[in-house]
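Module 6 notes. Inverse folding takes a fixed backbone as the condition and produces residue identities as the prediction. Think of it as a translation problem where the source language is geometry and the target language is the twenty amino acids. Below is one complete input and output pair. Work through it position by position during the lab.
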């Protein structure tokens, strides 16, 4: 089983912006739904306070189930864009170009949420912005993934004044009965059963200028957020975990590759991990354990596909590892959680 995190996984209350209004528009009392997960209306009034990420996800799941709203994450996402990110959103909105905006967004995103990471990958032709939930969380990502994707799409459109054309959208869960709802909400139907929630677009859009950006305000906000930057997670294992998720399918995946991506020697990386009471092999095991649970419960991927995505050498190795994690074979685990 994955190790327990020492700090709570938190997200700013602003991530629930629009929740009260949306529920009331359906003639339902939001206070009842909030109480189910230990929240109340007063907590949602201070956008700069924090709630546990698991509470937010449970609220999305409970609301969707109680009100029979299978696309609730998409609905809530329509209310949100840069407005939920506070000072980070102001900084991003005052960058010169989309490239600088996304670099600052990924750099400071932890100020908004320490329970997930944003990764920006750029190759010759395309850019991929991925949302990665920390592997220590044992909660459904279905509506959380829909919400994150909806916010991401809205954010990119807002920053580029609707000039950007998205190449591909990705979601880690299976397709629901009516994928056309995604087209209506996002402009296209995502690719389902992917490794992570992600948005892909052509590299040329990185050069788009952001309208009405203020260089002086950008400078002031950069200084302010720079002071907060020292609150960023310093635990090296957290950073390694992100790299493992990103490069698990890489043909050269291993401790040497991850050390290189972190600009460290392999020996130095291993030494730092030992100081934090873990090893590279244990972190890989943690990530695989969490992702296996996620893919089995929320995707329609075959067991063989899941084994491949998690980079096991063969299906038997995956089955042995899964039985070590959860005590039963993956097929039985999926059957049990499908009821």
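Target side of the pair, the amino acids:
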């Amino acid at each position: 089983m994955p190790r327990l995190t020492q700090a709570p996984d938190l997200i700013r209350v602003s991530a629930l912006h629009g929740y009260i209004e949306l529920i009331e528009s359906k003639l339902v009392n939001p206070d009842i739904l909030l109480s189910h997960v230990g929240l109340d209306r007063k907590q949602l009034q201070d956008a700069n306070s924090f709630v546990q990420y698991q509470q937010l996800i449970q609220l999305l799941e409970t609301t969707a189930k109680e009100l029979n709203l299978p696309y609730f994450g998409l609905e809530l996402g329509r209310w949100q864009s840069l407005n939920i990110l506070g000072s980070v959103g102001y900084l991003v909105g005052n960058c010169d170009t989309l490239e600088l905006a996304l670099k600052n967004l990924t750099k400071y995103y932890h100020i908004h949420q320490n329970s997930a990471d944003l990764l920006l990958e750029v190759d010759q032709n395309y850019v991929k912005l991925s949302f990665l939930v920390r592997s220590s969380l044992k909660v459904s990502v279905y509506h959380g993934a829909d919400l994150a994707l909806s916010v991401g799409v809205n954010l990119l459109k807002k920053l580029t004044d609707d000039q950007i054309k998205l190449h591909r959208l990705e979601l880690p869960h299976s397709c629901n009965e009516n994928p056309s709802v995604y087209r209506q909400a996002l402009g296209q139907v995502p690719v389902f059963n992917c490794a992570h929630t992600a948005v892909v677009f052509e590299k040329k859009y990185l050069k788009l200028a952001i309208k009405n950006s203020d260089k002086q305000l950008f400078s002031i906000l950069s200084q302010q957020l720079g002071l907060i930057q020292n609150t960023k997670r310093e635990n090296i294992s957290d950073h390694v975990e992100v790299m493992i998720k990103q490069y698990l399918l890489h043909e050269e995946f291993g401790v040497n590759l991850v050390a290189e991506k972190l600009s460290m020697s392999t020996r130095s990386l291993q030494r730092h991990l030992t100081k934090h009471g873990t090893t590279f092999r244990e972190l890989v095991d943690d990530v695989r354990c969490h992702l296996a649970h996620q893919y089995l419960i929320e995707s329609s991927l075959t067991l063989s596909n899941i084994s491949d995505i998690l980079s096991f050498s063969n299906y038997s190795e995956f089955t042995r590892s899964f039985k070590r994690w959860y005590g039963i074979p993956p097929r039985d685990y999926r059957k049990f959680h499908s009821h």
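Reference fact for the lab report: The mean pLDDT is 88.
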